[in-house]
Task: structure prediction
Amino acid sequence: MGKKAVEIARLDVGKLIVILNEALAEEWLAYYQYWVGARMMEGPMRSEIEPELLLHATQELGHAELVVNRIIQLGGTPLLNPSEWIKHAKCDYEEPIDPYVETILNQNLNGERCAIKRYEEIAAFTDGKDYSTYQMAVTILNEELEHEHDIEDWLTDIERMKDDIRKLRI
Result:
């Protein structure tokens, strides 16, 4: 961390690095959950949803890059071994054992809601104390909110489709 950055940071940098490593672990798990879930997914609207989930995966990977860069800028060491991800992550990784599209979407929705809490926490911890980390957290938070919205829309569309099919059967 640069001298001026240390001087203006008014927080426990060690604690922040721990929190950022937790976020880093969560981003890697989110990336894989999106990526593998998109590949495994079956059911209605799969062909429309799969490319979007792969885009979300790419964005989660971008978040990991932002977080790892910030950890290094702060003088910390990012988690170096993937076996550490599950140990440090506070957000669950949900295996796509059931490949049905709604199940995959709900798993990703759970992950997004956890990520939203994580970046709210980081933004609150750094607000007015570490401007660079705060800005990064808010940027990532906005993308996580967009992901949540996308997933909720797809789930609503699938439910409406199911309702229309039920009406046809009556």
